[in-house]
Amino acid sequence: MKMKLCFVFGTRPEIIKMSPIIRKCIENKIPFFTIHSGQHYSHKMSRLFIDELQLPEPDHHLDIKSKAPHRQGDHTGRMMIELEEILLDERPSVVLVQGDTNTVLAGALTASKISTTKSFTGLNMKLAHVEAGLRSYDRTMPEEINRIMADHLADYLFAPTRNAKDIAISEGVKRSKVSVTGNTIIDALNHGLELGKGKKSILSKLGLKENPYMLLTLHRQENVDDRGRLQKILQGIRRIVKKHKMPVVFPMHPRTAKKLKAFGIKIPPSIRIIKPCGFIAFLQLEAGACLALSDSGGVQEESCALGVPCVTLRDSTERPETVEVGANIIAGVDPESIAAAADKMLSEKRKWKNPFGRGDSAERILKVLEKDNK
After folding, report:
1. What domains are defined for the chain?
2. Residues 254-270, mean pLDDT to the nearest whole number
3. What would the pLDDT profile of 101-110 be if each residue is shown by its tens digit?
4. Exposed (0-12), middle (13-18) or buried (19+): which is 28, by Cβ within 10 Å?
5. Position with higher pLDDT, 203 vs 99
6. Are 146 and 100 in contact (CB under 8 A)?
7. Looking at residue 277, what is its pLDDT?
């Protein structure tokens, strides 16, 4: 039986990072289908990226939204019930999940549980985890639990760096399961920048083309759902703006907007709020910024590859390579630490080496899968 792949995704980063593999499947005529969990349910956070990256419409859309941040089991469980029905009906050879979301955990658990029922189904379903081996070592983050479980359930672990491979092996994962492939974000960045050529830049639309600015993103549960942490971060941003006299552009995540309203926190005029961007527009904003301030793992990678210094507004990172090459600094949420980190990164020379590969990760991943699933 010819290899048939299933891509399970539900958030902006998953769509972006799966897109190079999906395009390679189309190019090489490898059978596949896609499942969108609905975890990012707004057009701006999901539909726009599918359209921009020229991906086919998802074959299955579950539309499963989280009821509340503390209802992690409910969210994951409802996904599993629907995923099981689809996977048993479609019968893929390999299920691919990417990253560390509840969608990843649901896909990993469902595929792994089905693989134990071969005597009933005749299915030898395997699980592949794209971007495996990442660790923040902070188990207060739901993402950390998700990525650990996905790694230990997976038949194929596609690690973006040798460091990530070593982490997985140190936890007892068989060496033969882990392949260093680079990160598909580099493939996606190259494609996105190519798509953006000849199109009007968002910088022109915002009047930023000739003016220095900083880019801010905030969305993580531990930051935006905690009033105290959120206020501290904004205090730190105010200090940076006051010292460096340049605006901060803030494409505001729907979750963050909701929490700011609930907490009654007002954003100062020096922080310019814009609506969530598409992938191409966001790349343009990143590439043109003097500094990225973010709690996003993806922004740490993207800014590193684009040569833009980054200050990470978290207490830990699962992308230590960005820190090691000098592209990123972990500031936490203390206002003084954030301001000091910004001073340091703005004064650094942008001479680091991109640690995430050459942009051929999708091809490497498919080679591994094709070799084992002929």
Report:
1. 5-183+358-372 (3.40.50.2000), 200-347 (3.40.50.2000)
2. 90
3. 999 999 999 9
4. exposed
5. 99
6. yes
7. 87
Whole-number pLDDT of residue 210: 64
Residue with tokens 């579950």: 62
Catalytic residue among 40, 219, 244, 253: 219
| Positive or negative torsion for Cα 261, 263, 267, 272 | negative
**b or e along 120-129 (b: 16 or more beta carbons within 10 Å of the residue's beta carbon)?**
eeebebbbbb
pLDDT range class, residue 349, cuts 50, 70, 90: confident
Cβ atoms of 182 and 356 closer than 8 Å: yes
Tell me the two tokens of residue 222. 């531990």
DSSP 214-279: EEEE---HHHHT-HHHHHHHHHHHHHHHHHH---EEEE--HHHHHHHHHHTPPPPTTEEEEPPP-H
The yes-or-no answer on residue 152 being catalytic is no
